[in-house]
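Posting here for the record, re: adenosine-5'-triphosphate.
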Amino acid sequence: MRSLWSRLMRPFRRENRKRRAVPADDLPKLTERPWVAHSAELAETKVSTVARRLPSLVTRSMRLAWQAGPRDTLAAVVCNLLAGVFTAFGLLATTEVLYALFAEGPTPERVREALPSLALVGLAFTLQGALQSAAGWAQSRLDPQIERAVQNRLLDLTTGVELAALDDSDFLDDLQRAETRGTMAAPLMVVYTIDVLTGLVGLTAAAGVLGVLHPALLPLLLLTAVPLCWASVRAARMGYFTQLALAASRRRRWILSDLMTNRHQAAEVRSFTVRDLLLRQYDELSSRERDVELDLALRQTLTRTAGDALQGLATVAVYAALGWLLWRGSVPLAVAGAAVLAIRTGKTSLANLVYAVNRCYENGLYFADYLHFCDGAERRLPKRQGELLAPPGRFELIRAEGVTFTYPGADSPSLRGVSVELRRGEVVALVGENGSGKTTLAKILAGLYDPEDGEVRWDGTSLWRMDPALLRERIAVIAQDHTHWPMTARHNVIMGRPDVPEAVEAAIASSGADEVIAALAHGYDTLLDRRFDGGAELSGGQWQRLAAARGFYRDEPLLICDEPSAALDARAEHALFERIRAHAAGRTVLLITHRLASVRHADRVYVLDQGKIVEQGDHASLMAAGGLYAELYGLQAEAYR
Ligand SMILES: Nc1ncnc2c1ncn2[C@@H]1O[C@H](COP(=O)(O)OP(=O)(O)OP(=O)(O)O)[C@@H](O)[C@H]1O
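Prediction output follows.
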């Protein structure tokens, strides 16, 4: 007995809860949210706190439902309420039937007396059934509409937030919580809110009937709800805290799973024989999660069992009170019969109501996560000042002054007081060792990151005052870590812009991708993804040529080339740099490269070291200065000699 008790109580012990929250030894520490330690979040999910927040959560969910499908929302609410009204009506009519049947007089007479009420009972329950079906239909039509609305909002915000938000692990955790349970909770909130209304109408009907029959029965009926409420809320909180505690672990597991199933990593997974390591790490996380889930299932079952047992006792007390009233002659038999019916209906409505309130509470916790994410993401939409201006179609000068930038969560800035100038018609190069800040600076010049200090101006107008979407329209990028878009070759070049065949061909020819297209089975219309039937795959250099074609096709006043030739062969690289130089006529090119021979012809070179500009000038003056540039150039030249 003692050992059974000890086993049952094991999951409740503090030291065991803590042990499960400790990550596996060979994994970097996760920012876990052990549910025993987070007093702020614990406070947020207190019954009283959630009860206070529930009305606003319910209002926001109903507003969402109204926006997603006003007709279906109205139909669901009205049909459910009317169904509740007819339940009450049927109950009252049943009471009348019982009064007639238990009255004095001959049986045929009493049955005849009961017939009109019986007809009303039939009518009420038929209408109630029909209305409930209609409500169910409206609710099932509403579900996908709400789901679509919340998903769209989540994706709209996630793709709209400033880029830095996606480097912030707290934001990513919030996103994961919103994306997994949060979006699912939104339609459920609406369903259970409507169920709460229905339950309330049913309970009011039963309570009204009971109150009329005998005032002592009503508080007793309500008493039966207390254990049920307690158990449901407690179980819901346990579930929520477990989800909270597992959020970081789940994200880690998802990343591991992606590494193991993504074909881009498949070769390295095999050649580095990391399969066992990845499988073991994945299994450690999932077995830890399984333990936590099993622990939760046990604790929830114990809580619900305790609630059910207490509710059983309360029900016995209600019937005992009724029997006592009958025995003392305080209520006649007809009233007792009607009371039994009202108690049964009341209990069903109460159980439905408690269930619906509890599910509202439970889903409210997750829906609050979704709203928390949306509110947080809205605050992280690019902030701009005053009326937004369109950037100039062509500019004369882009100037960055004293730019400092630190990535979210980083200990030190990646850029410190950097100032650069880019003039129309120039090729400006950024060089420096790995991690010196070149890509970060390029992203700031393109308005992708906002500097924490300093400013970027296009023809004297600060980027703070420009419409970010229009600004990005003026910039073409040939990115270092370009995406292999799962689209046709043509769409990989035009990327959502109007398809102008001659311009596509020109961009393809400029980047040397024409040879790539010629070798494809369906030319421009070949789908570049092996995961689809008939899809083709390209080599690293072939993808890079296509990425370059994408940059040229946009033909915008600023072209940013970040390591555009890292995967190209010597001939393709030479041709690409020739093309980039030609492209600069009337436009501006910002070139980031480690191939220093390619920057010899740049109008100006900025040399970065640990986030600072340490040298600037053209090739000749930098070589003459004999600094970092000359050293790096010398090392590369030496290798060729
Ligand atoms: N998303 C990020 N989150 C946090 N830190 C980052 C992020 N991206 C870059 N960093 C850090 O910022 C610094 C500058 O990185 P950046 O990519 O700008 O260097 P780079 O000069 O372009 O390097 P490379 O020549 O290797 O491409 C590095 O120390 C890097 O660790």
